Amino acid sequence: MAIVAGVDFGTLSVRVSLVDSERGLIGSAIAEYPLHRKREDPEYATQSHDDHMRALASATREALKKAGIAGDQVQAIALDTTGSSVILVGKDLQPLGEYYLWCDHRAKGEAAEITEAAHREGLEAIKWCGGVYSSEWGFSKLLHWLRHNPDKRSEFVSAFEHCDMVAATLCGITDSRKVKRSICAMGHKWLWNAQLGGLPPESFLIKVDPLLKGMRERLDGEFATSDQIAGKLSDSWAEKLGLKAGIPIPVGAFDAHWDAIGAGCRTDDIVNVVGTASCVIGITPSVNLVPGVCGVVQGSVHPHRTGIEAGLSAAGDIFSAIASRAGTDVKTLSIGLEKYRAGQTGLLRMTWDNGDRTVLANPNLRGVTLGWNLQSTAQDELFAAIEGTAFHTRVILDRMAGHGVHIKRVINAGGIPQKNDALNQVYASVLGRLVLVPSKSVVSLGSAIFAFLAVGTFKTLEEAQDAICPPHRTFTPNASAQRTYDELYALYSKLYFTLGQPGNDGLGDVLPTLIKVAQSAASQAE
Length: 526
Fold this sequence. Notes:
526 residues; five-stranded mixed β-sheet
């Protein structure tokens, strides 16, 4: 028997779960932290490292209290985080500002330059992330910071993903060269690839911008999968958390990847982690490079398999925005959604409110709703947005399947499917597949599984999943709804590729032009 702590840093809060290898979850607590946005700049999204660490300490102590156990009974702690959430650090790993959060899109210009240079220079690594580099990823954000913080460049030592920064902090590591970097994080977001020699060569980075000179060396180090140990809990942080010093901390990963593990993902499964955004995570036995799919990394989800990642830049955020505009909340607005029939709203919702992550990888898009009439309601739009996220997910799965990715099971995980059966039923009918949903929340359960592996409680990841993961509920496609959604999907797909990318008809320029005009107007108002 063993007790471990599994930690999940989300967009707005951290959850700490204490899990017993025989009894399961014995205590859990959540602590919130602020997300810093700017109305005048919708691309801006940052968070404070200190806020994260204070919340972690608070949630850990509260979880111990709820579980009714002493901190010295916890044998390991493992952490996952959002990503790519990047922090720039100076001497002794001191932050030089706040995290560029995963949903910060200020670096979309830099991303376009990296993409263009990668194709011009024949960088092989670009094929492993779908052919397009994203404003949500590490090098884009690093270059944006270097360009916009000239006064701090002399202090800059390195940049870290959130999962690596938290682990290093808890271990008391202050030398950037001694921080183990997550293959999950660096492979999916920083063009790292073991087969291609690690990070992109210095010669390529300089061609993107001379400011990147020397950055490869500053980012280099030991890259490891999550079955490796990042370090051991330091005395000072053990006291703050209420835990025992010296317990192991495995190399971290991204929240969606470990949520997939907690949801019971096995080889050839696809997990839709539906939260503020939506991550589509899969485990494949071999490498299949898929155009537009934002990451194929060996060892990222399962240490001994190939992980594949795609997703939507917003899902729950869209639902919340619709409810907020209506002066209510999603829970209230969702009452009665289960009575809606497929397509009954007459609305078709393109879920680009925060841009497109996959398969277009285009941040210069915004949400579109077609088919309004004078009686349309906010609840109609919410249902259409749920349908829209399902259609977008189908675009992604169709693209994967068309490039050799075998999909055995589809699992809906994340916070939203746990409490919205209407969404799960829509997904089953839109995808034309059985959709499995964990019968209990799996948030932070993946972290607990890797913590158990760190102390040797289970011999394999699969053995840990068999013991820890909850069973699934099953949602079956409705035949009538499936026929309707097949018809609507043809329209959705046509609009997706016509409005979402530049074309000869000019429609692909509509949304980017609206963004450009709005930004110009905002700058004139300052």
